[in-house]
């Protein structure tokens, strides 16, 4: 049996490890990133209730009609 020094065996095992890791990475399928989902209502948020807004519109319209 041929004698192999420890440093050559360590170097060979490191080369095999790197080659196997490269094969695993290249075997993975590259999929495109998913598109961001639309956040509904993010640009239209009212800090007050809809009833308060409706009442204030009606009151302002009543004030305009009295003029």
From TrEMBL:
Positions of transmembrane segments: 43-65
Signal peptide: 1-27
Keywords of this entry: Membrane, Signal, Transmembrane, Transmembrane helix
Domain of life: Eukaryota
Protein name: Transmembrane protein
Organism in which the protein naturally occurs: Linum tenue
Top-level taxonomy: Eukaryota, Viridiplantae, Streptophyta, Embryophyta, Tracheophyta
């Amino acid at each position: 049996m041929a004698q192999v020094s420890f440093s050559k065996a360590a170097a060979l095992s490191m080369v095999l490890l790197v080659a196997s890791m490269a094969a695993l990475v290249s075997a993975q399928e590259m999929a495109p990133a998913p598109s961001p989902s639309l956040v509904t209502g993010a640009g239209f948020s009212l800090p007050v209730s809809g009833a308060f807004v409706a009442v204030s519109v009606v009151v302002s319209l009543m004030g305009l009609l009295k003029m």
